[in-house]
Amino acid sequence: MLTNTLLLSKQLPTLQYSSTPERFDETWEAPLSILLGLGRAAGADFIEFFLERVNYISCLAEEDTITSITPRLSTGAGVRVFRGKADCYVSTNDISFSGLKAALEKALSILGLQLPGPNAFIPEINLELLRDYAAKRGKDSWLPLCSSIAEMGEILLDSTAQLQRKAKHIQSRRSSYFRDWQEVLVAASDGTFARDIRLTQSAGLSLLCADGAHRTSMGERSGNTSDPNFLKTWDYQQLAEQIAASALNMLYADYVESGTYPIIMANHFGGVIFHEACGHLLETTQIERQTTPFADKKGEKIAHESLTAWDEGRTENAFGTIDMDDEGMPAQRTLLIEKGVLKNFLADRAGSWRTGHPRTGSGRRQNFTFAAASRMRNTYIAPGDYTTEDLFASIDKGIYCKKMGGGSVGATGQFNFGVDEAYLIENGKITKPLKGAILIGEAKEIMNKISMCSQDLSLAPGFCGSVSGSIYTTVGQPHIKVDAITVGGR
Amino acid sequence: MPNVNEIADYAQQSANKLGIKKYDIYGSTVDATSVQVERGEPKQVKASNLSGVTVRVWNENNTLGVTSTTDVDAKGLELALKTAYEASFFGVKENVPDFSPEATVPIIHKPGTKYPQAPVSQLIENLLAAEKQLLSMHPAIKGVPYNNLAQRDVDRFYLNSDGAIRAESHSLVSIYLYSKTEQEGKKPRSAGAFRISHSLDTLDIKGCIQETAEKTISHLNYEKIKSGKYTVVFSPDAFLSLLDAFSNLFNAQNILDKQSLSTPDDLGKQIASPTFSVCDDALHPANVGAETFDGEGTPTRRVSVIENGILTGFLHSAGTAKRLNAQPTGNANIGAKVTVSPNFYHVFAGAPAPQQLSLETAENVVFIDDLQALHAGVNSLQGSFSLPFDGWIVNKGVKTSIESATVAGDFLQLLKSIIFVEKEEELTPAGVCPRIWVEELSITGE
């Protein structure tokens, strides 16, 4: 019970709160505002609590058997305390008032601060009325509407059966699914008080084919962030057909000959090139570390004039869509590059303080054990004026990168990513499949070589690992042409 | 987290209440602190005390369900047992995992101990000093963008309804430094180093600074390399990262799942050069994070995997061992589907090589220090890799940094193309290993 009079530090042990760990709601306002006030009274400049509850399940089908069903239940909280520009992040599984207070106390002590003495008044932190995105969009009912374990099993087994029907030279076939239900509550000493529920689901098929010494593996995932019926409507028949065809194409493929080529990158997951080569370098985290060549380039041309790119959290059902970020800020549409000119960086709260760039609702984290950092959401190159046929017609000898694997970018801006499905282009036509290709380049250089963008923008789900853990993102682009890139092979 | 005996009591009481007869629990608590600095100021300090358990329950039909939870109190454990029991009715009906036959075998090896954690202020002070020293070692070193000094205490346990109960603890302290250069008219260059120990007192911070600086400086003057076939020398770290990426070769679960480059029939076959041997050795004296039992309670041990180039053993869980008529090896990770993973590699020379090789005398060899982007450039099911790397072209001991290049090949072919395994072993996070010489690997430069 919270009294109307000013609270003394020594009264804290006598307080009783009705906030329940089973639901993050308005009942958390009183204990969190007291804890935030306690942190301010200790001398912290800013304090933020992030509370999280997760109900996760994954399911794996191998051949014609469900071989794994793994539920995971998790509850925890993180408290971030700033003193000047230094910050400390402490996480705990214990979300009781005393558990949160202990975490706060530890964070304060690490920064050289102490809880106030028994007769000190605790300043009141006026939190805003709970901004409840979950209630606003009816998300509280989502979890029970998701597929049951029995339904998961049936769908996954039918999907591996589809692979059996459609593919040749099968060595193994798998289907997997996960459902990640996450409820979060953010309260901060600037008055932020917001709640959301995220429901992320993904299902995928993978295939390993072998014929003598020839081997190939192929996989593809679908993803969704707000449809409890996602698994029920998952089009695995079409997906099975697609990866069976790709696997057969690649089974007897020759290794790519290394060298420098013009390439065409397909739409959909081809967008990983922009994510790795440029997107990461536009996060304020990279400015703070001085690991981006674009730090002082805002307003300057950093890419070919044919290139416009966005990062946003608002596309309906895309894998990186969020109603609010993990610092309680509503998601935005952020224009990154317009006709080659750098327009904005992606900033979380700390990144904004430290670099001066405005917050963009991009403070994201894997879970409560990580402090939020500036991260991408749905990131893509905008459609251009060309047709895909125009792109092919412009190449005498090059490589068509139809399906990309993963990739990464290093501290010096050098990036690389694998190509799962590639074809040789000769005189504007696809002539034969190639395997073993990896694309290598410098971010600063490659951005000026993306010379043609077609009109067929398509988005694909992805998983991005970085300083604040692994998060769900979308990559995307139309078909694009890169005038020259180093292709590692044999 | 409650101690292991309290958890055993909670579990027993909840199991009785729910009518569950057979279960096991694996869990751990990690108390961790890490610091980062930036240009002479503390940047971020992280601290956590996190617990988690994985509960497996067998129902009356002997099918298995699993649940993981971070709520490790009586109520949380009861919910986990109940959820696992419900999931058990959807569990596999063939090759159902069972308790390890070795879960109650006495463990001879002495478990690790916990060391007192250093105050956070001391961690910050040490890392600030390390950053300062590194920046002073060459005018071109302009920043240490990635740095981390971390300490953690780990408590872990395994128990089951047949009375098995094991617990152990250990402490780890590690430092990572990664510096970056800036010079007019040149591309930025970078390199890093890592050290690990039981306690801050014994952590080789000085060595880490020295190695980071030397490596970074050695990359300042770089040249392009012509594409072609080269003899390649892998640093211990680079070689172990590649070996680990292809560990499905000797992973019994992957082999049974047909997700491996090997089959059960490959045991006894020559898969590598006779000069090459590798063991998985969780209890190696150099392994500072040594664990004496795996997720199923099986004691860990030294397992010969490749001896003189011959595939001699697989890494097993209790289930894979039973299916392949072998002994569990202490490499299991508990879950609805038990997985298998290596503990700590020990790579060493097998049969004597036809010739002794040295970087001091060799001409035009590529020395790979660090392989990058393994998640993107390795196709572990096809056996192929194509990876960017940091390294040097070496001529009679003179090292020149390579500007930007990739190495590509087939891992099974690489194993057969090993021409020399040096004697001097180095400690890396993944194990101990000497430098490995491989002939005829494709390098793509210009």
Walk me through what this model shows.
Chain A has 490 residues and is an alpha+beta fold. Chain A has three domains: 7-56 and 72-136, no CATH class; 139-186 and 195-252, no CATH class; 259-488, no CATH class. Helices cover 20% and strands 40% of the residues of chain A. Chain A is built from eleven helices and 25 strands. Chain A has helices at residues 29-41, 97-110, 133-136, 142-145, 149-166, 236-251, 272-279, 284-289, 349-355, 388-393, 443-446, and strands at 7-8, 46-62, 65-83, 86-92, 121-122, 131-132, 170-188, 193-211, 214-224, 254-255, 259-265, 309-312, 333-338, 341-342, 363-364, 373-374, 378-381, 397-409, 414-426, 429-435, 438-442, 450-453, 458-466, 469-477, 480-488. The radius of gyration of chain A is 25 Å and the shape is globular. With 446 residues, chain B is an alpha+beta fold. Chain B folds into four domains: 4-88, PmbA/TldD superfamily (PmbA/TldD fold); 120-220, PmbA/TldD fold (2-Layer Sandwich), CATH 3.30.2290; 223-242 and 353-444, no CATH class; 267-349, no CATH class. Chain B has helices at 4-18, 74-88, 120-135, 205-218, 236-245, 252-256, 318-323, 374-377, 411-416, and strands at residues 22-38, 41-58, 64-69, 141-160, 165-181, 190-197, 222-223, 228-234, 276-281, 302-307, 310-311, 332-333, 339-340, 345-349, 365-371, 378-379, 384-395, 398-402, 405-410, 418-421, 426-428, 431-433, 436-444. The longest helix of chain B has 16 residues, at 120-135. Chain B is globular. Chain B starts with a helix and ends with a strand. Chains A and B meet through strand 3, strand 4, helix 2, helix 5 and strand 9 of A and strand 2, strand 3, helix 2, strand 4 and helix 8 of B.
